[in-house]
Amino acid sequence: MFCNLFLAALEAARICANKYMVKTCGKDGFHIRVRLHPFHVIRINKMLSCAGADRLQTGMRGAFGKPQGTVARVHIGQVIMSVRTKAQNKEHVIEALRRAKFKFPGRQKIHISKKYGFTKFNACDFDDMMLEKRLIPDGCGVKYIPNRGPLDRWKALHAE
């Protein structure tokens, strides 16, 4: 089962959350990521409703409509927005996402992750993995370096 979220709703929620976060945390104190992309095109078969329209219309014959807009298809449990920030701004993030929830149809939950930022690694293990050089910074995320593989690559990484 899925729900359609229009591009306008996604944009309104992004603006709402961003405006509140800038006001409370400053423009460099957070990072919002919208995790949905509106790729699905919605079409409409317009019908005339004035007098004499019965000669112009063909009803459902050739009913492939004109594009009306784009939507993102959302499944139950799918993540819509993510925010990363410092731990002291946790209450501000919850309030920003609560305000953004009202822009969407249906019921949304705010989930506080145990992960570090937008990475897939737990926050409690993150610092240890960085010290062991099993994670290296890569853009706004990190790259995992496994303990297996060629020995010369491992030596080159740990020689620094």
From TrEMBL:
Gene3D superfamilies: 3.30.60.300, Ribosomal protein L10e/L16 (3.90.1170.10)
Pfam families for this protein: Ribosomal_L16
InterPro entries xref list: Ribosomal_uL16, Ribosomal_uL16_CS_euk_arc, Ribosomal_uL16_dom, Ribosomal_uL16_euk_arch, Ribosomal_uL16_sf
Originating species: Scleropages formosus
Similarity comment: family membership: Belongs to the universal ribosomal protein uL16 family.
Keywords in alphabetical order: Ribonucleoprotein, Ribosomal protein, Signal
Gene Ontology molecular function, alphabetical: structural constituent of ribosome
GO biological process: translation
CC per GO annotation: ribonucleoprotein complex; ribosome
Signal peptide: 1-17
Protein's UniProt name: 60S ribosomal protein L10-like
